[in-house]
From TrEMBL:
This is Peroxidase. Its cofactor is Ca(2+); heme b. Its EC number is 1.11.1.7. Binds 2 calcium ions per subunit. Binds 1 heme b (iron(II)-protoporphyrin IX) group per subunit. The keyword Iron-sulfur does not apply. Ca(2+) 2 binds at T194, D238, D245. Residues 24-317 form the Plant heme peroxidase family profile domain. Belongs to the peroxidase family. Ascorbate peroxidase subfamily. The record marks R61 as: Transition state stabilizer. It holds the Pfam family peroxidase. It catalyses: 2 a phenolic donor + H2O2 = 2 a phenolic radical donor + 2 H2O. Disulfide bonds join C34-C114, C67-C72, C121-C313, C200-C225.
Length: 317
């Protein structure tokens, strides 16, 4: 065994013996072993969002796309190896998932303040998502902690399991149900689209061909997104894409949802009442969003002896 690998082995054993082998998540997982971990994550996220507000939406999306593929295990962060193809190459992530450099910065700063690699990349994703929402005016919640990192990734599962922007309501409900999430979770978590931008290729068909769309909104979208080309041009998912508010839902009620999957939530189906409620009641939306984020963060975590604490979020130890 080389000296580098020996050091890793010692760190991992020390890690497990020092913290105990917990098989369930709890919000105080790092309270004794590294009390500065969470404040450090908050500080780095705050600085990144201040520099570019859009990055808050990107970090939230990374956590979402991570959890929907084999659970919240930081598999989305891994680069390709001879053993697997990175989830970064999957259709929902290629040329659109971003914020990886912020996660790397957080990992570096947290390991430095803790003195050793004790915080998993999966937990960093979960906490960074929460801190991003808070930095953009949204609710806070107690993040459950103690996830460990996967040693593999799956491009095919990312293609199959991450909800598509072209899905209708029954497909969306089924996609969330597969993850143990219900209809309320679907609508509340879709409200994450109160933040961020979308590429033209994902809404082009909607603004040119769909009928359940406000004509002026469609016309405005066509100015950004030409019928041919311009696929990577960006448009906001709601009128205030850097503020956590209820405009996303108000847009849906006015038939101004940017993505087909957005407007599917308010199109004469069973989720109309929730969309209408959230459009008028920020308190109800923010409370349900926080609850659903906790629930999503609990999807199939690796705990105890399963997985590892990566030294570099991009690579298996």
């Amino acid at each position: 065994m080389g000296s580098y690998n020996f050091c890793i082995a010692v760190l991992v054993m020390f890690n497990l013996s020092f913290m105990g082998i917990s098989t369930s998540l709890n919000p105080y997982f790092y309270a004794k072993v590294c009390p500065q971990a969470l404040p450090t994550i908050k500080q780095v996220v705050g600085a990144a969002v201040k520099q570019e507000r859009r990055v808050g939406a990107s970090l939230l999306r990374l956590h979402f796309h991570d959890c929907f593929v084999n659970g919240c295990d930081a598999s989305i962060l891994l680069d390709s190896t001879s053993a697997f193809t990175s989830e970064k190459n999957a259709l929902p992530n290629a040329n659109s998932a971003r914020g990886f450099e912020v996660i790397d910065r957080i990992k570096y700063e947290v390991d430095k303040v803790c003195g050793w690699p004790v915080v998993s990349c999966a937990d960093i994703l979960a906490v960074a998502a929460r801190d991003s929402v808070v930095a953009l005016g949204g609710p806070s919640w107690e993040v459950q902690l103690g996830r460990r990192d996967s040693t593999t990734a799956s491009e095919s599962k990312a293609n199959n399991d991450i909800p598509s922007p072209f899905m209708d309501l029954p497909e969306l409900i089924n996609s969330f149900k597969k993850q143990g999430l219900n209809v309320k979770d679907l609508v509340a978590l879709s409200g994450g689209h109160t933040l961020g931008l979308s590429q033209c290729r994902l809404f082009k068909n909607r603004i040119y061909n769909e009928t359940n769309i406000d004509p002026n909104f469609a016309h405005q979208g066509r100015a950004t997104c030409p019928p041919n080309g311009g696929d990577s041009k960006l448009a906001p998912l709601d009128p205030s894409p850097a503020s956590f508010d209820t405009n996303y839902f108000s847009n849906l009620v006015s038939k101004k949802g940017l993505l087909h999957s957005d407007q599917a939530l308010y199109n004469g189906g069973q989720t109309d009442y929730l969309v209408k409620t959230y459009s008028k009641n920020y308190g109800a939306f923010s409370k349900d969003f926080a609850s659903s984020m906790i629930k999503m963060g609990n999807i199939k975590p690796l705990t105890g002896k399963r997985g590892q604490i990566r030294l570099d979020c991009k690579k298996v130890n």
